[in-house]
Specification:
This protein is an alpha+beta fold. The chain has seven helices and eleven strands.
C-alpha cells in the first residue's frame, strides 16, 4: 500500500487532472513495436488505465504490464527518446524525427531493468531522465554544485501520425512497464531552424521501486553490473555502448555516460584477458 500511495502522489505532482477513455493493448502484444490494429482506436491525447498502479515485486514491473500515467498526450504527438530510441530509429512508427535537447533534466543509469537488459534474478541498469532538482537531491549536493554532470539531455524526437498514435503509445506503455511513467517535456531541436516541440517522455523517477541511486553514487559497482548482465533485449553493455556512440556522433559530452562506458570497457577487456586460452571461460 505504501508503494501505491507513493506513486499516486508522484502522479498528482506530474499532472493534477487526467481524463479520457482507456487505451487498450491489442491482443497478443509482446512489447515489440509492431504493425497492426489496436483493440480500441482512440484519439492521440488518450491516457492509459494505470493512473493508480501497483507494483509486481517478483517481476520488477507495474502490475498490468503498462507504464504509469497522469498526463494528457500532446497533439500532434511527439515522443522523446533518450535511451535505445536514440539508435533504434526503425522500431517506432514515425513520420519524421530530429535530434534535440530537453533542458533542466539529467540522464542517469539508475533504473534496474528486469525485463529488457537484465532479469528478476539479476537486474541490469538502464537510463532514465530525472530533473535537475531530483538529481541534486539524490546526490545530497547544494544547488549548482554538480556541474560536472550534463544538464540537458540530448535525444531523438519522433513525430507520430494520428493514424498510428494509439498503437505506438500502446507498445511504449508495455515496453516501459518496468517502473516508468509518462511525463511531458519541451524539446529544442539541434537544427535552429526548427521550433521547440512539446513531447511525451517516459521517465523513471527516484521514487519508483526499481530506481537505484547507489548506481549513480558508486560508478564502479554500476559498471560491474552492466558489464556482466544480459536480458531478453541483449547484453546490458551493448545498450550503454550504443548510447555512448550516439552521443559521440552528435558531438555531445555526457560525463556520466562516458565514464560509465570507459569503466565497462575496462572490465570486459580484463575479463577477456583472464579468459584467454581457457576453454569455456
Amino acid at each position: 500500500m505504501m508503494v501505491v500511495s507513493m506513486v499516486e502522489s508522484i502522479l498528482r505532482e506530474v499532472c493534477e487532472t487526467a481524463s479520457g477513455p482507456i487505451l487498450l493493448r491489442s491482443e497478443g502484444a509482446k512489447g515489440r513495436f509492431r504493425k497492426g490494429t489496436t483493440t480500441a482506436r482512440t484519439a492521440p491525447h488518450v491516457v492509459p488505465a494505470l493512473l493508480s498502479p501497483t507494483w509486481n515485486a517478483e517481476l520488477g514491473v507495474w502490475a498490468g504490464d503498462r507504464a504509469a500515467s497522469a498526463v494528457d498526450v500532446p497533439s500532434p504527438l511527439w515522443i522523446f527518446g533518450y535511451g535505445s530510441l536514440c539508435w533504434k530509429n526503425d522500431e517506432i512508427l514515425h513520420t519524421e524525427r530530429f535530434v534535440g535537447r530537453a533542458a533542466g533534466w539529467r540522464r542517469v543509469f539508475a533504473q534496474r531493468s528486469m525485463d529488457h537488459r537484465g532479469t528478476p534474478g539479476r537486474p541490469g541498469l538502464v537510463a532514465t531522465m530525472i530533473t535537475d532538482a531530483q538529481h541534486t537531491a539524490m546526490l545530497d549536493l547544494p544547488p549548482g554544485e554538480d556541474g560536472e554532470w550534463a544538464t540537458g539531455v540530448c535525444g531523438v524526437c519522433y513525430r507520430i501520425s494520428d493514424e498510428h498514435a494509439a498503437e505506438v503509445l500502446d507498445a511504449l506503455d508495455f515496453r516501459e512497464k518496468g517502473g516508468y511513467m509518462r511525463a511531458l517535456v519541451d524539446v529544442t531541436p539541434s537544427d535552429k531552424a526548427r521550433a521547440t516541440v512539446r513531447a511525451l517522455l517516459y521517465t523513471a523517477t527516484p521514487e519508483n521501486p526499481n530506481f537505484d541511486s547507489s548506481a549513480v553514487k558508486d560508478m564502479a559497482a554500476a559498471a560491474q553490473v552492466i558489464a556482466h548482465t544480459t536480458g531478453p533485449s541483449g547484453p546490458n553493455s551493448d545498450y550503454l555502448f550504443a548510447l555512448a556512440q550516439f552521443l559521440e556522433e552528435q558531438g555531445e559530452r555526457d560525463a556520466h555516460v562516458e565514464r560509465l562506458a570507459e569503466a565497462v570497457e575496462r572490465i570486459i577487456a580484463a575479463s577477456k584477458a583472464v579468459c584467454k586460452g581457457r576453454e569455456g571461460c
